[in-house]
Design brief:
By secondary structure, the chain is α/β, with parallel strands linked by helices. It has one domain: TIM Barrel. The strands form 2 sheets. Strands 1, 2, 3, 4, 5, 8, 9, 10, 11 and 12 form a 10-stranded mixed β-sheet that branches. A two-stranded antiparallel ribbon has the order 6-7. Helix 4 packs across helix 5 and helix 8 runs parallel beside helix 10. The longest helix has 18 residues. The chain is globular and about 70 Å long. The protein starts with 15 loop residues before the first helix and ends with a helix.
């Protein structure tokens, strides 16, 4: 290969037109999924203090968000529920009249072509804030599986297009696949939160979803941030159990994991650009320390460059507007 001065790599950077021609990684609205927090009642649009622009929404208020998401070209949303009441078994998660089940029905009636993905976990519904049934101070993995399966099936029955188990219980994908198939929903895909790390970046989400653990923490079932090879084992297990897509969460501190998963497995890879990543950018931008638009688009591009096919991100709506403005 010729070197300098014949080789001048700056030639491919001298104008926006040439930079766009040489660009290796692209972003489009079709790459995004927008997370929504659904609460009970009517007329509820409650700001989430650490996540500017995000809200807890009652079903009637949810539909205006859905209309905006659809107009922006975002292909889907993922729902998280905040029930009116919580109990040790998280019964609101699998209640046919639960807050997420009602939201699914409303969305599918208003926007039938919008993909509705549901988070399948118990943490928002249990009074102790853990992702499964407690036995003493420990989550009982196997007793939790039936409740996760019941939750996923209730979501499919309500009209969910995709279910996404996030509790990090061993065997959760197999239990959900069996329940869906037995219930007549063999065509319902599963996005497995396969490599979900025990991360400090979930703090704002736990405020939004009112799901902080009341005792202990989740390091007994979520992944150790120091481990990479274990992530591949988690992904492989979920694929063997019937996952159709696999997720890495969080995204930005685990770009290496996204890349490893993408290189190893010929499966669609999803990454969750989580609440803490979003809130950091918002806080820095509000203080004038960074330019939010450039920083957010750089982060989203990095996640795509690492190998993510889909990105769950609270910046989805803004990113679509920014992309439209660049045309």
């Amino acid at each position: 290969m010729a070197g300098f001065p014949q080789l001048r790599l700056r030639r491919l950077r001298k104008s926006e037109t040439i930079r766009s021609i040489a660009r290796e990684t692209s972003l489009a609205p079709s790459n995004f999924i927008y997370p929504l927090f659904v609460t009970h009642g009517q007329g509820q649009r409650i700001p989430i203090e650490p996540m500017p622009g995000c809200y807890q929404l009652s079903t009637d208020q949810l539909l205006s968000e859905v209309d905006e998401v659809t107009q922006l070209g975002i292909p889907g949303v993922i729902l998280f529920g905040i029930p009116a009441h919580k109990d040790p078994l998280g019964s609101g998660a699998y209640d046919e009249a639960g807050v997420v089940q009602e939201a699914i029905r409303a969305i599918k009636q208003a926007a039938p072509n919008l993909a509705v993905i549901t988070d399948v976990c118990l943490c928002e519904y249990t009074d102790h804030g853990h992702c499964g049934v407690l036995r003493g101070d420990t989550v009982d993995n196997d007793k939790t599986l039936d409740l996760l399966a019941r939750t996923a099936l209730s979501h499919a029955q309500a009209g969910a297009d995709i279910v996404a188990p996030s509790a990090m219980m061993d065997g959760q994908v197999a239990a959900i696949r069996k329940a869906l198939d037995s219930g007549g929903y063999s065509d319902t895909p599963i996005i497995a939160y396969a490599a979900k790390y025990a991360s400090a970046f979930y703090g704002p989400f736990r405020i939004a979803a009112e799901s902080s653990p009341q005792i202990g923490d989740r390091r007994g079932y979520q992944m150790d941030p120091a481990n990479a090879r274990m992530a591949l084992r988690e992904v492989e297990q979920d694929i063997e159990e019937g996952a159709d897509m696999v997720m890495v969460k969080p995204a930005l501190p685990y770009l290496d994991i996204i890349a490893r998963v993408k290189d190893r497995y010929d499966y669609p890879v999803v990454a969750y650009n989580v609440s803490g990543e979003f809130s950091m950018l918002k806080a820095a931008a509000q203080n004038g320390w960074i330019e939010e638009r450039r920083a957010a688009m750089e982060v989203l591009t990095a996640i795509r460059r690492a190998g993510a096919d889909l990105i769950l991100t609270y910046h989805a709506k803004d990113a679509c507007r920014w992309l439209a403005a660049e045309r």
